[in-house]
Amino acid sequence: MTNLKSLGLSEELHAYLVAHGPPPDPVAESLVAATRALGGVAVMQVAPEQGAFLTMLVKLLGARRIVEVGTFTGYSALCLARGLPGDGKLLCCDVSEEWTAIAQKHWEQAGVADRIELRIAPAIETLRGLPEEPHLDLAFLDADKTSYVDYYEALVPRLRPGGLLLADNVLWSGSVIDDKNQEDSTRAIRRFNDHVQQDDRVENVMLAISDGLTLARKKD
Question: 88 — phi, psi (to 5°)?
Fold first, then answer.
């Protein structure tokens, strides 16, 4: 497992951190290798310690219904699904058949494919087509940054009280505090972070895990 994106850690300290968590297994290592072979886009894969954190959160919540927006090659989905009970379900939203084919292969190898439904379509359409009543235990947001607020607004009403929304890349490699960076994605992340901070439907915390991870818990 290589240090793809964690902020503020040397390679040696990152290796130490990972070594003191769940040990990597052959399926996860195979998935990391397959993703790395894609080249520069591999940076979109979540870090190993973040994946372990996702699994732990699913178990702590006792989550049974999860939605993931932005699946890529499936590492985060693998980690989320591994935390689910046998009758739990994870809905994955993505638009790439090429990248998710890698995901599906490894979900099968890991024995979690029966817990995962993959929908290849614009995620906002999938989300708006879900039942409107609160029924989701957890949502993980890791897709195009310019649509983060739209995804958030589609998901929060569908979270049960006490349900959790996680948003990745909220520190955006430190660019969120660089006023000279006015790229669309950077501005979108700033807008999203402010949006969550001002939302009285949730209580939230931002953590410096990997590239920044926001946890927003829907109030009871």
Answer: -80, 160
pTM score: 0.94
CA distances from 207 to 166, 167, 199, 217 (A): 10, 10, 18, 14
Longest dimension (CA), the chain: 48
pLDDT for position 5: 58
| Residues 101-122: tens digit of each pLDDT | 999 999 999 999 999 999 999 9
Q: 155-192 b/e with 16+ CB inside 10 Å = b?
A: bbebbbeebbbbbbbbbbeebbeeeeeeeeebebbbeb
* Paired sense of beta strands 136-141 and 213-218, if any: unpaired
